[in-house]
Amino acid sequence: MFRVKRVLSFCYGHRLLDYPGKCRWLHGHNGRLIVTLQGPELDQLGMLWDFAKIKQTLGQWIDDHLDHKMILNRADPLVGPLQAGGEPIFVMDENPTAENIARLIFRVARDLGLPVVSVKLWETPDCSAIYEETAHPEEEGGFKSE
Asked: pTM for this structure?
């Protein structure tokens, strides 16, 4: 089995509804995303998936939909005023936590045809969330450092 990882970075803002801490206020992050692809076979060039192609597909989707956007829950009362003011937003059905954003990007990567097994989103240098559909034995018991 082969695995490749690609790092993608993007900037975004968000806030969390019904959250008692300071993340209830609009604020921003410099997100660092690590997408892991897996498969049993290499192509004729000896690659599982071309790193440039990952950036061209998933990276382009992130640039178009999330980068420099305010990511908000559909129920957020600021959605309407920000849209009316022409601000770039991305609306989610869930609270835009690091966990939910990682899951969103995982599903987009899968829908784009990437053999994704894991998406790790570093929201800050000290905090990250991982979404994957199956656990990897080497990561049981907590996050594995990258």
From this structure: 0.89
Tell me the residue range of the domain where 44 lies: 2-134
Query: Looking at residue 41, which CATH number applies to its domain?
Result: 3.30.479.10
Active site residue 11: no
Tell me which residue of 86, 88, 52 sits closest to 68, measured CA to CA.
88
Residue 127: active-site member = no
Catalytic member of 68, 127, 133, 139: 68
Q: Please tell me the distance from the alpha carbon of residue 106 to that of residue 116, in angstroms, as a whole number.
A: 7
What's the total number of domains in the chain?
Answer: 1
Residue 140 in any domain: the answer is no
d(CA 19, CA 97): 11
Does 69 fall in a domain?
A: yes
**23, 65, 132, 136: which one is catalytic?**
23
Q: What tens digit of pLDDT does each residue of 110-145 get?
A: 999 999 999 999 999 999 999 998 755 444 444 344
Is position 23 annotated as part of the catalytic site? Answer: yes
Higher pLDDT, 136 or 41: 41
